[in-house]
Amino acid sequence: MSDHASYSLYRVPLSARLSLLNVTLIRIGQMTSLSQFMLGAMLGHAMTFEQAMIATLCGTLILELLSLGLGIAGAKEGLSISLLSRWCGFGRLGSSLVGIIIAVSLLGWFGIQNSILANSLNYSTNNWFGFSWAAIISGLTLGCVP
């Protein structure tokens, strides 16, 4: 467990904020995740190199433009996305809806990661489990690991 307190319900004090280096290292880690390797493999098989680079650039630009404003405001004010959405006009109900949308997207991402692991488990055991059982085993395993 981290030594940092949870600041989900109030502003993060200046003394507890992370440096630009820490945040940059986290972002670099996100770019080297399994999902990015899968994206590269799928684009590599479906498109030419030039088309894949353009598609990746466009997707990255859209994501960065959407997150840039929230990131700057959150860093400047020391607020989480929930508090930022509550105090920027969405109110208590609106910020709850933002939280639900994020939770649903994370559940979907858990399903994708589980499918990747289940396919790998199924392939490595020469289809001994079958995909359904491999998905159950990997889902329970991923769900129990903190």
UniProtKB/TrEMBL annotation:
The chain crosses the membrane at residues 52-75, 96-116, 128-145. It is a multi-pass membrane protein. InterPro entries: CodB, Pur-cyt_permease. GO terms for molecular function: cytosine transmembrane transporter activity. It is found in: Membrane. Signal peptide: none annotated. GO terms for cellular component: plasma membrane. Its main location: membrane. Keywords: Membrane, Transmembrane, Transmembrane helix. Pfam families: Transp_cyt_pur. PANTHER family: CYTOSINE PERMEASE, CYTOSINE TRANSPORTER CODB. Belongs to the purine-cytosine permease (2.A.39) family. This is Cytosine permease. The gene is codB_5.
